[in-house]
């Protein structure tokens, strides 16, 4: 399992290790790991090291000393900007500073102008930063970002919340890194929300800590190992009834495309039979995919099938009626889009959803999640993991909070961040396809938790596959995703 540790969990690990390791051990190990990463990125000689007043700055000073070296044949031309802070430095920081000053590194008082840096090492602030960067420090970060040079961030890009992935402060700034080398354990904020843009490539340096010395983490990264029990080649002796029925309920007037996209997601990811039960039945057949059967939502009986409800459903009396019927029934549900908004507006429907015994997967984007929680979308985005946990607990469901680094949570408090996907998914209909994939896996007998994990991973990997083959991310369309998702799912099953 690819564990993700909160700041509090990392602090607890550090505290426990302090009693067993000689002073300064972790700092030296971090410095060595960061130096190795810096050398790997270095395509020249001019290195700028930014060192702040805390442990993060100590790590940066170690990097400066290691890269510059005490000899005349130093590997790099290192310039250090050191910001000591008001308090006296710790013993470890003082030792790192002495090593850096004894090397060939040059200490500057301000950012040197006109230098074409081969690499910038960000050791200004680490996981302990709680206030937004301001004044001269904010100006420095803006200047670094404007240079557009490769940046190696130590532990976490300065200005980024390691727990949430939000840039600290409503109008805050953070270092935009090319790569982040993070120490002891990986951090959730590097993989969701703004963290994916600011952290760049994430590299874990465990610093020689045995996995047994780390307690279980509160979150982890999604990967096929988490849903692999459901991945297997299909038996030859099977038929369409072996793989379940999916019915997509939606399609109010002018919105027929949404349920069709969800239905195609379900069809191409292996459901035996797929229906669209439309609020406003306008067509008898999907000519692109005639395998999808068309029904009237008011007359449709799902039987033992799985329901995907909400895509393009609208908010009419008919929509409310079919949603109420679905919540009162015993079918597994995937609830998306307009169905989520109707539930958000009705405490009665929320209560009925929370009391259901059958599985349910909710797939809100941040604004839909905010409506369900009665907050603003900025509050949801400010702590995506907490918002997903709260929704899952309150509504007794598996929740997929969509966005960059989608967050999957269940009512027991488990939280997973998904690493697949790219900006091409920011397009109309992408979420409808995801809902259809969730429904398809549920219909094929997957448990709700694994179905959500698998669907989100496959959906993101489908977009990655399309980009790798030249389709996007600019201009990638939702209609391209089902075929790519089929290829990804079959590769996993093989």
UniProtKB/TrEMBL annotation:
<feature type="binding site">
    <location>
        <position position="431"/>
    </location>
    <ligand>
        <name>AMP</name>
    </ligand>
</feature>
<feature type="binding site">
    <location>
        <position position="365"/>
    </location>
    <ligand>
        <name>(6S)-NADPHX</name>
    </ligand>
</feature>
<dbReference type="Pfam" id="PF03853">
    <property type="entry name" value="YjeF_N"/>
</dbReference>
<comment type="similarity">
    <text>In the N-terminal section; belongs to the NnrE/AIBP family.</text>
</comment>
<dbReference type="InterPro" id="IPR000631">
    <property type="entry name" value="CARKD"/>
</dbReference>
<comment type="function">
    <text>Catalyzes the epimerization of the S- and R-forms of NAD(P)HX, a damaged form of NAD(P)H that is a result of enzymatic or heat-dependent hydration. This is a prerequisite for the S-specific NAD(P)H-hydrate dehydratase to allow the repair of both epimers of NAD(P)HX.</text>
</comment>
<feature type="binding site">
    <location>
        <position position="312"/>
    </location>
    <ligand>
        <name>(6S)-NADPHX</name>
    </ligand>
</feature>
<dbReference type="InterPro" id="IPR030677">
    <property type="entry name" value="Nnr"/>
</dbReference>
<dbReference type="InterPro" id="IPR029056">
    <property type="entry name" value="Ribokinase-like"/>
</dbReference>
<comment type="similarity">
    <text>Belongs to the NnrE/AIBP family.</text>
</comment>
<feature type="binding site">
    <location>
        <begin position="402"/>
        <end position="406"/>
    </location>
    <ligand>
        <name>AMP</name>
    </ligand>
</feature>
<keyword id="KW-0521">NADP</keyword>
<protein>
    <recommendedName>
        <fullName>Bifunctional NAD(P)H-hydrate repair enzyme</fullName>
        <ecNumber>4.2.1.136</ecNumber>
        <ecNumber>5.1.99.6</ecNumber>
    </recommendedName>
</protein>
<feature type="binding site">
    <location>
        <position position="158"/>
    </location>
    <ligand>
        <name>K(+)</name>
    </ligand>
</feature>
<keyword id="KW-0456">Lyase</keyword>
<keyword id="KW-0511">Multifunctional enzyme</keyword>
<feature type="binding site">
    <location>
        <begin position="55"/>
        <end position="59"/>
    </location>
    <ligand>
        <name>(6S)-NADPHX</name>
    </ligand>
</feature>
<keyword id="KW-0630">Potassium</keyword>
<feature type="binding site">
    <location>
        <position position="122"/>
    </location>
    <ligand>
        <name>K(+)</name>
    </ligand>
</feature>
<comment type="subunit">
    <text>Homotetramer.</text>
</comment>
<feature type="binding site">
    <location>
        <position position="155"/>
    </location>
    <ligand>
        <name>(6S)-NADPHX</name>
    </ligand>
</feature>
<dbReference type="InterPro" id="IPR004443">
    <property type="entry name" value="YjeF_N_dom"/>
</dbReference>
<keyword id="KW-0520">NAD</keyword>
<keyword id="KW-0547">Nucleotide-binding</keyword>
<feature type="domain" description="YjeF C-terminal">
    <location>
        <begin position="223"/>
        <end position="492"/>
    </location>
</feature>
<feature type="binding site">
    <location>
        <position position="432"/>
    </location>
    <ligand>
        <name>(6S)-NADPHX</name>
    </ligand>
</feature>
<feature type="binding site">
    <location>
        <begin position="126"/>
        <end position="132"/>
    </location>
    <ligand>
        <name>(6S)-NADPHX</name>
    </ligand>
</feature>
<feature type="binding site">
    <location>
        <position position="258"/>
    </location>
    <ligand>
        <name>(6S)-NADPHX</name>
    </ligand>
</feature>
<comment type="function">
    <text>Bifunctional enzyme that catalyzes the epimerization of the S- and R-forms of NAD(P)HX and the dehydration of the S-form of NAD(P)HX at the expense of ADP, which is converted to AMP. This allows the repair of both epimers of NAD(P)HX, a damaged form of NAD(P)H that is a result of enzymatic or heat-dependent hydration.</text>
</comment>
<dbReference type="InterPro" id="IPR036652">
    <property type="entry name" value="YjeF_N_dom_sf"/>
</dbReference>
<feature type="domain" description="YjeF N-terminal">
    <location>
        <begin position="10"/>
        <end position="215"/>
    </location>
</feature>
<keyword id="KW-0479">Metal-binding</keyword>
<keyword id="KW-0413">Isomerase</keyword>
<keyword id="KW-0067">ATP-binding</keyword>
<feature type="binding site">
    <location>
        <position position="56"/>
    </location>
    <ligand>
        <name>K(+)</name>
    </ligand>
</feature>
<dbReference type="Pfam" id="PF01256">
    <property type="entry name" value="Carb_kinase"/>
</dbReference>
């Amino acid at each position: 399992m690819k564990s993700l540790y909160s700041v509090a969990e990392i602090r607890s690990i550090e505290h426990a290790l302090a009693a067993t390791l000689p002073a300064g051990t972790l700092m030296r190990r971090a410095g060595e790991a960061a130096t190795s990463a810096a050398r790997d990125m270095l395509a020249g000689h001019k290195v700028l090291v930014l060192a702040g007043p805390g442990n993060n700055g100590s790590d940066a000073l170690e990097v400066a000393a290691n890269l510059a070296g005490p000899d005349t044949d130093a590997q790099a031309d290192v310039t250090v900007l050191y910001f000591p802070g008001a308090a006296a430095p710790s013993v470890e920081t003082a030792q790192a500073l002495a090593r850096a000053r004894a090397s060939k590194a040059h200490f500057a008082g301000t950012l040197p102008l006109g230098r074409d840096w081969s690499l910038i090492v960000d050791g200004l602030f680490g996981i302990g930063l709680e206030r937004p960067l301001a004044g001269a420090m904010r100006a420095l970060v803006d200047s670094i970002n404007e240079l557009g040079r490769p940046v190696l961030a130590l532990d976490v890009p300065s200005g980024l919340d390691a727990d949430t992935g939000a840039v600290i402060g409503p109008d805050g700034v953070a270092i935009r890194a090319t790569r982040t080398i993070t120490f002891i354990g990986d951090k959730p904020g590097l993989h969701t929300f703004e963290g994916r843009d600011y952290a760049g490539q994430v590299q874990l340096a465990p610093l020689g800590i045995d996995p047994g010395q780390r307690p279980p983490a509160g979150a982890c990264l999604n990967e096929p190992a988490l849903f692999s029990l459901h991945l297997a080649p299909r038996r030859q002796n099977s038929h369409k009834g072996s793989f379940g029925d999916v019915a997509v309920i939606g399609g109010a007037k002018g919105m027929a495309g949404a349920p069709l996209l969800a239905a195609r997601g379900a069809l191409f990811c292996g459901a035996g039979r797929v229906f669209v039960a439309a609020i406003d039945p306008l067509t008898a057949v999907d000519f692109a995919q005639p395998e999808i059967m068309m029904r009237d939502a008011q007359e449709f009986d799902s039987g033992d099938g799985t329901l995907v409800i909400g895509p393009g459903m609208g908010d009419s009396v008919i929509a409310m009626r079919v949603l109420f019927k679905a919540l009162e029934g015993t079918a597994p549900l995937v609830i998306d889009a307009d169905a989520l908004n109707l539930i958000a507006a009705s405490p009665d429907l929320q209560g009925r959803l929370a009391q259901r015994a059958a599985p349910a997967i909710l797939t809100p984007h941040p604004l839909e999640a905010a409506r369900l929680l009665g907050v603003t979308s900025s509050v949801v985005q400010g702590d995506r993991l907490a918002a997903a946990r709260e929704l899952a607990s309150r509504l007794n469901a598996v929740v997929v909070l969509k966005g960059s680094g989608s967050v999957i949570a269940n009512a027991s408090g488990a939280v997973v961040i998904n690493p697949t996907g790219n900006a091409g998914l920011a397009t109309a209909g992408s979420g409808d396809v995801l809902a259809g994939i969730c429904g398809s896996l549920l219909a094929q007998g997957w448990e709700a938790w694994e179905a959500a994990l698998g669907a989100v991973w496959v959906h993101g990997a489908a977009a990655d596959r399309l980009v790798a083959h030249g389709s996007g991310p600019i201009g990638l369309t939702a209609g391209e995703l089902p075929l790519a998702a089929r290829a990804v799912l079959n590769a996993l099953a093989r």
